Amino acid sequence: MAGGTIYDIVIIGAGPAGLTAALYAARAKRRTLVLEKAVPGGQVAITEFIENYPGFVDGIGGAELGDVMKRQAERFDAEFVFDEVTGLDPHGAVKTVHALEGAYQGRTVILATGAEHRRLGVPGEEQYSGRGVSYCATCDGAFFDGKDIVVVGGGDSALQEGDFLTRFARRLNIVHRRDTLRAERILQERAFGNPKISFVWNSAVEEIVGNGAVTGIKLRNLKTDQVEVLPTDAVFPFVGMVPNTDFLKGAVELDAQGYVKVFSEKLETSAEGVWAAGDLRPNVPRQAVTAAADGCIAALAADEYLAHHGA
Ligand code: NAP
User: Fold this and answer.
1) pLDDT above 90 coverage of the chain, percent
2) Which phi and psi (to 5°) does residue 21 adopt?
3) pTM
4) Which of 8, 67, 83, 136 is catalytic?
5) Which is the closest atom of ligand 1 to the Cα of 50?
6) Ligand 1 centroid to 159 CA: how many Å?
7) What is the mean pLDDT of the chain?
8) Is 139 assigned a catalytic role?
9) What is the pLDDT of residues 54-67, one digit of tens each?
């Protein structure tokens, strides 16, 4: 029970949303606990370099941004515990957050567990995960120095991570199911101008093939229906995100895709005293800066709620 402490605000997740919520909650002098299962920064921490977070003229490393945001919140006495949350009981004046190492109690809770990269869902993907299939270019790119790499997807993640992976790749193919990209223009221009990058258009992934480790990716051309295996040493799928909200089923209302529904501009969820901030909300831009803004809004709302309830 985390020593029987009842926190004013328990924040689940330490990405930009959770860390900003922690900063505002702690500065409001609320006893604040942040629960995180991995490293501070969330998706940001596994992004090599962030160029569009305001305030950093020359950009900043993703892991460094996560770390400085955490230290900024700690400076105002936010507490951090590394534990994996498994459930939430949002009923009553004191809510209980269940985690692998114990349970934590708070008068309010801010949900900020974000989203993670969607799996392709094809044969071979799980089998070769960690043996050529990876969802983290920053973590695993260097293993493929001088090798051939395939990135799947046509959004910001595919192009940004693809660009980073060309530091290592001998050749990098970006496989996309259409012939137009949805990524930011600046990322498109960089990719088209990078001599190591080629595009494989109108192609769907049917299977990841290998022999102990990845050796190729089986693609179906959606225009010609032709199927062929493109040889490669690594496959990095960047085909969108899924919210990290399994632990919230039955606790707060989720939409059909599992995103947490909010019912006001203050980011209130269906449970009283529980707010949602960042990428686990539907239809948000999924930028570090918008997640941070959400964290601020949720923390201010939680502080106001506590004040109204005499805390
Ligand atoms: P995304 O924008 O949803 O793009 C996913 C891409 O994968 C799309 O091109 C989509 O194709 C393709 N795709 C989806 N399912 C597929 C499947 N089963 N097989 C093959 N391809 C599939 O996802 P994202 O690129 O991960 O970005 C997520 C969010 O984070 C976005 O809001 C993005 O703007 C943001 N983000 C921003 C930055 C940045 O600011 N630099 C960096 C990374 C991410 P279609 O185009 O045909 O739908």
Assistant:
1) 96
2) -60, -40
3) 0.90
4) 136
5) 41
6) 9
7) 97
8) yes
9) 999 999 999 999 99
